[in-house]
Amino acid sequence: MRKKYSEESPVGDVLKLFVQQNKLQAGINQINIKEAWKDMMGSGIANYTQDILLKGSVLHVSLTSSIVREELTYGKQKIIKMLNEDLRADVITDIVFR
After folding, report:
1. Residue 1 covered by a domain
2. What is the average per-residue pLDDT within 65-91?
3. pTM of the model
4. Domain tally for the chain?
């Protein structure tokens, strides 16, 4: 049963409640991660990126270049930290480059 609010609420609170009740956060995170990846990694890496998929808390990134994949593997923890800071939540715990 849904709660009815008799008093006024800020729009931000109502939207957070709507997202929480309809379990939309996973889809929102998926979209936000794709945007954050392009912003953080730049157009050079984005050109080699085929697909980005969040499964649970593991980010799966498909790349077209084995050289780029190897280079990104070295900075995996830094990438996780940067993406989580951009998302303002600890959404990603690991990255799998393929």
Report:
1. no
2. 94
3. 0.79
4. 1
Question: Residue 24 sits in a domain of what CATH number?
Answer: 3.30.300
DSSP one-letter string for 59-98: EEEEES-HHHHHHHHHTHHHHHHHHHHHHTS---SEEEE-
Name which residue leads in pLDDT, 13 or 44.
Answer: 44
Domain containing 60 equals 11-97
CA atoms of 51 and 40, how far apart (whole Å):
16
> Could you tell me if residue 5 is inside a domain?
no
Sign of the C-alpha dihedral, residues 81, 16, 24, 27? negative
Alpha carbon distance 6, 97 (integer Å)? 49
Output the pLDDT for position 92: 95
